[in-house]
Write a structure and sequence with these properties.
single chain, alpha+beta, Phosphorylase Kinase, domain 1, Transferase(Phosphotransferase), domain 1, 2 domains, seven-stranded antiparallel sheet, 23% strand, globular
Length: 265
Amino acid sequence: MPGESLGPEIVEECCGPLRVARRAEVPLDRILEALRAPGELLKASRKSETLRVNDWAVKRSRKAGGLGVLKHTFRRARYRQAWEAALHLERHGVPIPLAHAYIERSRMGIIFGNMMVMDYLDGCVDVEAFADGLLRAGASDAELHGYLERLAETVNLLCSSGAYHNDLAGKNILTPDGEQFYFIDLDGIVLNRPYTEERRLQNHIQLYDSFIDRLGDGYLDPFIRQMLPRPGRLQSWMTQVKSGQAARRARTEAIWAKQGGRRQG
């Protein structure tokens, strides 16, 4: 595929209960030191937590037992998905936090958890927050259109790489300056599947939903048009996007209502 490079050399080795896959240029000792460090908690969920350790981010699964151990063991490929996606996207020049290592904690072939070490993107915010900053600063129409054009170009690069992000909402795209963009939440990347019309529509619904409360169709129509292989059908496509976004928003708000929360921003 055009633009594909050989990618980094990967070394796989065992260190006690840890099975480590790492970039050859990254010393094993540094990886192990990062895994031992307490770090600064960045994000936590029921299944995992992400820590900042100096200039790295370490995402690790929570200790699993019972069914969780079975899932880690028999769905090993699924848990390695973010690591494989990171290497694939790097080979295709798609901007992401650089991945340094993937580690499985195992004993006698049973996998109890996993960890992934990647760059920490310092000074970045998600693209929704950056758009809010542009609006607060009184950005011109040209600046706002330029911002979305650059974002669309980066999304097109992702989609042409043979990868599909199943949650391409604004919260999963980071930027330090409105010029460079980085895709995160690589667990949501699906590799080597055709980028079908259904998947394209899903991504456009996610992106439209991220920006519609901030920017109107005068900005979002050309944004979506730039990501269409046949821009001439924009009107009928946008009808589908808007219908899908309304349904997505209704589902989201129903969940918030059930949880006693409310929409922020």
